[in-house]
Design a protein that fits this description.
Blueprint lengths: L1 H16 L7 E6 L4 E6 L4 E7 L4 E6 L5 E8 L4 E9 L4 E7 L6 E8 L2 E6 L4 E6 L4 E7 L5 E6 L5 E6 L4 E6 L4 E7 L4 E6 L5 E6 L4 E6 L4 E7 L4 E6 L5 E6 L4 E6 L5 E6 L23 E6 L5 E6 L4 E6 L5 E6 L4 E7 L4 H4 L10
Antiparallel strand pairs: 1-2, 1-28, 2-3, 4-5, 5-6, 6-7, 8-9, 9-10, 10-11, 12-13, 13-14, 14-15, 16-17, 17-18, 18-19, 20-21, 21-22, 22-23, 24-25, 25-26, 26-27
Length: 358
Amino acid sequence: MRAFHHGLLLASAAWLCVLPAGAETLLVVRKTGNAVDFMDPGSGLRLASVPTGDAPHEVSVSPDGKRAVVSSYGTREQPGSTVSIVDLEQPQEIRRIDLAPHTRPHGVAWYAADRIAVTTEGSRHLLILDPASGRIVNRIETAQETSHMVVVSADARRAYVTNIGSGTTTAIDLVEGRKLADVATGAGSEALALTPDSQELWVAARADGMIAIVDTATLDVKTRLSLPGVPIRIAMTPDGRTALITCAGTAELVVFDTDTHRELGRAKVAVPLAAGAAARPFARLAPGSVLPVGLLVSRDGRSAYVAATMGDRVVQFDTRTLKVLRTVDVDGEPDGLGSTSAIPRAVCHGCQPLENLW
């Protein structure tokens, strides 16, 4: 029996080691798991799990792909006030930055080697952090309600923050460290994404059931697209031709052409509700829905990952056909998603390249 178990462990270890160099490792934030998991999307195997602060929501990977920042939002009863810096090569939390008195950190964008932008709903701010020192190097007040998500332009000169309670999107000059304007993007403005050239900002107003497309040069809303169903996250394909949107109310992934603004298709996030999901606090947002929230487009643009928060699963779709490629079980309310090409050394210590195993 001992020989059998020894052989099984060797086989498992060898199987772990054949993860190809440069393969995409999925980062999944688990809200009630208080952790970020490293998942192999091909096998569904959990490679590693790193504890964070209470009730983490979002994740952003550093420009060099070696670290990530995770925001710990906290619970309704106990607001969070920390972000975790995570090593992606040797999975571990290497620094926890306390933002107090700022609370409820949510949206994060690691936009330069030494700069992270994080929204704080509790204090209505966008904070700029130095990840190495853990210092807050700038505090920019939005003066808007529920400052939730953030995105940064490709040249790192401007940030945009959506404000759910105010129905606005705040434009911020990162060079001068000041607020530029509040754009009326619609009730429940939450999701946002920039086209790769940073010329258009797409904002989903979940309460209004529409997408506002903002000209970033003028900060005017140039187009509004109807999209009922509680649109909640937006992601662009790398070529900028396609916008993907998760709708929490209808449990769908919807795809638009960014040039014509025409809907190209939609697919159901068809997974069952997890046991006890109806009693979870965020289930109130869309009762009965598996609540697809977290959304990530793969680096090659061929697939999209959707976190079904109330289904405890991440679903991978083909971005061209919208067919489901695979479903990965992730307990603990999966939410924010990221990816890295780093294979965790803690898992693959001593591994050989695939071609050397034969």
